[in-house]
Amino acid sequence: MKLLDFFERHEWRRSLVPLFYFFALVWLISVWYQTGFSFQDLNITNLIVVVVVTAFGALLFGVSILELISYLIFLPIAGRNVQVLSQVHGELLIHPLSASVTLVALAVTILTGASWGLKIWGVMLCVFALQTYLILDSVDSGEEAPDRKEIAKPGLIFKLLSLILGAEVITVSAGAKPLSPWKIKTLPEDTWIVDVRTKAEFQWNRLNSAENYPWGLRLYEAALKQPKERPVLVMCFSGHRSPSIAVMLRRMGFERVYNLHWGLLYYILLNRGRDRKGAFGLTRDSHDTSGRGKDYKLISVGYVMAEFLILILAPIESHIMGRHVSSSQKWIGAILGMGGFVAALMAYRELGRNFRVFAAPRRSGRLITSGIYSKVRHPMYTAVMFAFLGYIIYWGSMWGFPLWLAMTTLYVVKAWKEEEVLKQRYPAYPDYERRSWKFFPYIF
């Protein structure tokens, strides 16, 4: 059995994302415990490596955070199709962030000289490399190979850069032109619009004149029938799949190839409520009238902000106050945090394709009452509570505790509201509610 088939069959591939960030957390704790993030003197070679790696990592971090924020803003627009989009793009959007974390962790490890940190960083790198291989292999398995006598497919380096960067360097280096979303209507009406998203994404929303070639499938044959002087616009959802396809079309001899920079995501955000007519109009209105995209925005914004502040303030407080934290307290915090991570992973694995960020369940979803859900109805929220409580205990943070209480309260309110929705969707939910616990078995 191929490695890719094993991970896909057992639904473990997406588990590599939380696994990577689990090791990143372990790396952070180990470097702090061993060195306290005190920097050592570096020779000129190590100093150059640190500067280059940090600069590249910071660039990737900025780009990835911008994309993730845009995606979170976009999610309510997706409505009932959010599950399809999140499954397709979750890895692709987080991957540049993982790359930046890997680079910055290497720079910090060199600066501090943490031997434990270097070993854990090696594990992080292996997980990141495995995930990269699996994603690229999935692209290759869905891509129809062109006739190598006439043209070579985009090389591995182009696909790798497209995946990690999703930036203009790929298309520019091949002679294609990056096109910003707000300039798309400057193209001629007869532009050949090549959409390389999946069929489900394409059916959800697209440009009126777009043609669908998922991951470039059957594109080579279609391209042979097009005049080489016709302008071509290649697009995907977030700009991580289209660059290598733009490279392929340039190699086929098309004179004007444009890659939609930042993808359809930004174009949809820019064109909310506007006229949908013409070749570059969207086929679907941005507003979801079904009501299934309801996500209790104020509650969600509240607990996300509380979590963000806890992550930032706890180490800052420790540094400013100089508060001593005993080894036993750190171990308790670390165990609670890791326990929360494991519980979240178990819940995510049990949900599978039923996982959803909104309160409303999927139309094709089913009520999960097995595994960890046989005892607890909201184990994902319980896991987050434990993880952040462990984080606060580890740092000995007094500032973070009120924020943790606020976060927990918001999760309780959200769980209560979600259960009202689930009772309407699943007739068996009241019986499930009677024989299970909301957050903690035998307690609450």
CATH fold node name of the largest domain: Four Helix Bundle (Hemerythrin (Met), subunit A)
Distance between the termini: 44 Å
| Helix share bin | 55-70%
Characterize the main sheet: 5 strands, parallel
Query: What's the order of the H and E elements?
Result: HHHHHHHEEHEHEHEHHHHHH
Spatially, the strands of the biggest sheet line up as: 1-5-4-2-3
CATH architecture of the largest domain: Up-down Bundle
Structural commentary:
With 444 residues, the protein is mainly α. The protein has three domains: 1-141, no CATH class; 152-270, Oxidized Rhodanese, domain 1 (3-Layer(aba) Sandwich), CATH 3.40.250.10; 294-444, Four Helix Bundle (Hemerythrin (Met), subunit A) (Up-down Bundle). It contains 16 helices and five strands. Helix 8 (199-204) links the parallel strand 2 (192-195) and strand 3 (210-212). The two termini are 44 Å apart. Mean pLDDT is 80; it is low at 6-10, 143-152 and 286-294.
List key phrases describing it.
444 residues, mainly alpha, Oxidized Rhodanese, domain 1, Four Helix Bundle (Hemerythrin (Met), subunit A), 3 domains, five-stranded parallel beta sheet, 16 helices, 5 strands, 59% helix, 4% strand
Topology:
Elements: H1 3-9, H2 16-35, H3 44-78, H4 82-112, H5 115-141, H6 156-164, H7 168-173, E1 177-179, E2 192-195, H8 199-204, E3 210-212, H9 219-224, E4 232-235, H10 242-251, E5 257-260, H11 263-270, H12 297-321, H13 327-351, H14 379-395, H15 400-425, H16 429-434
Parallel strand pairs: 1-5, 2-3, 2-4, 4-5
Helix pairs in contact: 2-4, 2-5, 3-4, 4-5, 12-14, 12-15, 13-14, 14-15
